[in-house]
Amino acid sequence: MQKTAAVLAVVVMVLAGINYVNAAENSGLLQIEGSTTVGPIADAFAEVFKTKYQNATFTVKKTGSGDGAAALIDGRCDIATMSRFMKAEEIKKAVDKDIFPTIHAVAMDGVAIIVHPSNPVGELTRQQIHDIYVGKITNWKELGGADMPIVPITRDSSSGTFEVFNEKIMNKDKMAANVETVNANPQAQARVKSTEGAIAYVGLAFLEGCKALKIDGIVCTKGTVQQGIYPVSRPLFFFTNGFPEPGTIKFDFCTFHLTEKGQEIIEAKGFVPLTNY
Amino acid sequence: MKFNKPDISIKAAGFARPLLLTPAEDIRGWLFMHAGRLLFFLITCTSVVSVFLIFTFITREAFGFVICKTPIQTLGRLWEFFTSPRWYPEAQQAEFGALSLIVGSFYVTSGALMLAVPAGLLAAMFLSDIAPFAIRQICKPVIEILAAIPSVAYGFFAVLVVAPWLQTHLGLTTGTNALNASIMLAIMAVPTIVSVADDAMTATGTYIREASYALGATRAETLIKVVIPAAHSGIIAAIILGMMRAIGETMVVWMAAGNASQIPAPWWNIASAVRTMTATIAGDMGETVKGSDHYHALFMAGFTLLAMTFILNLVSEYFLSQAKKISVAKRK
Q1: Residues A70, A145: one domain?
Q2: Is pLDDT above 80 for B17?
Q3: Is residue B194 very low, low, confident or very high in pLDDT (cuts 50, 70, 90)?
Q4: A104 shares a domain with A114
């Protein structure tokens, strides 16, 4: 009787041991925090990883790039998603805490400037768009178009699209009071589609029914955004503490954007993958 | 006389329980009754307490905006908030002038009332005094369904149908503007106005109408000169409730009003895009850092809104209680 119990105990311990080994490989908690723009990519990646690593748990918080950096520095997350590079003081703080921020560029975020398809204006400079949004240019005829008031449309200032536009075109200048605000890409698209004098900016997935303008002579396509020559675009990043150990989930996660599936996901979310498959 | 303990085996017809309870049962019953009462009291309290908590929370957060180091700065803040139309809360030199937002709320609300009040009151008159019973039975529930449609559905309708229509048929430069939002809010306020005004007019009773007919008044005269004056308190309450519905609405104005923080120029230009307080709070709150000036400024806007609706609510309560008094007095 006692013998049986002892054998059983050994078997249980061995099984637990095997389980433990498996757990180390396949489970764990991967905490991701940061940008609201990169968040959807991380979310979609995590969705795929949930089926790949059934014992692991993934949490994706979308609070803002600054919060992501702070969380990485405090050791509260494994991967910080950021729509900008880390600031010097953030990196300094991290190194002081023995954390070495390591960058993984996962995608490009391009913003197209769109107008109504009937609008004869096909090309604008960044300065001209800036002047439209600060209220210096108010009629399309000043830009070689028809005599028609311009209806400038912007996004709510919490959106990543607004951030890119604000940075690359507006130079963070205040917009004029008559600029209308919408709170989603499809809504901006719908307004431009139905309004002849409208101008707006959207992610690259929302061009259907509108005309994307050439900016500084460069057409807005996936290719120009990918090559980094289209001016209204920016890279999106994952930051980790050091380069992740190969073979870990974290490593898999940070290199997933290089796989075909990863690129498909990035494109489906309205961003441009950095690699061509 | 010897006191005989009542025979507890006597049972009331159909009841299995004895008529006399033992002291333990008595105490248990008493406890259960009071525990039940307490439970109901607490449940009722949660809504009362939550109103108080909302008040204190919003007031406290709004005070964070107002209170500065010196009283002069405080006055400056308030002066800017209520008189400057420049709303740039996230800019490097932030400006918190909410006048354009207050004016925007005022425009869409008054525009909605101009459309909804005549329509609502005429519909209420029809339902209470003119319509045959069968039509009334069908119409009233259908009108009330209008109130049950989610506001985001109205918003989509405003952006995808009304806005292009305004542009192509009225030649407006932009279709999402004060007029569009007013039309949407009017549609949403009509059910409130109709049902409250109709209730008030129905509550005036038949005898007052019969007295009027007996004096030789026609149906139209009775309606206009007798029923409406008698029901005026309820009608005013209906209008105020409709107004509260319009002023507090968020999703529709966020989608339909265009959200340009400007005061229409010239003042009657309802075809220009405006931005309301509710839309600003809803649109900006997600991005603000908790405890920042922008955050407190949004609560200040919320506080202004709360103060306005609170006053409106008090006024409508007053008129509704007047209406009740009138109908009770008549019944006597």
Answers
A1: no
A2: no
A3: very high
A4: no
Q: Specify whether the CB–CB gap between A158 and B284 falls below 8 A.
A: yes
CB contact under 8 Å between A158 and B286, yes or no, is yes
Transcribe B166-177 into DSSP letters.
HHHHH--S-SSS
In terms of domains, do A228 and A117 share one? yes
Residues of chain B in contact with residue A197, where contact means CB-CB under 8 angstroms, are: 173-174
- Bridge partner list, A212: A114
Strands (E), chain B: 87-88, 95-96
The minimum CA-CA distance between A82 and chain B, rounded to whole Å, is: 16
**Phi first, then psi: what are they for A56, rounded to 5°?**
-90, 155
Phi then psi dihedrals of residue A15, to 5 deg? -60, -45
A–B interface: beta-carbon pairs under 8 A: 69
Q: Which of A236, A273, A241, A240 is nearest to A257 (CA)?
A: A273
| A254 and A264 in a common domain | yes
Distance of CA B109 to the CA centre of its chain: 12
Measured between alpha carbons, how far is B18 from B30 in angstroms, rounded to an integer? 17
List the domain range (segments joined by +) for residue A37: 2-108+235-273
Concatenating the DSSP letter of every residue in A30-58 gives EEEEE-TTTHHHHHHHHHHHHHHSTTEEE
**């391009």: which residue's tokens?**
A110
**Residue A146 phi, psi dihedral angles, 5° rounding:** -75, 165
Helix, strand, or coil (residue A208):
coil
Considering the domain architecture, whether residues A222 and A244 belong to the same structural domain is answered as no
Q: What is the pLDDT of residue B175?
A: 85
Mean pLDDT (whole number) for B116-141: 91
Class for the domain spanning B99-284+315-331: mainly alpha
Same domain, A115 and A102: no
Assign residue A24 the CATH number of its domain: 3.40.190.10
B261 touches chain A (CB under 8 A): yes
The 10s digit of each residue's pLDDT in A220-244 is 888 899 888 999 988 999 999 999 9
In a shared domain, residues A153 and A200:
yes
Rounded CA separation B96/B302 (Å):
14
For residue B94, the chain A residue with the least C-alpha distance is A174
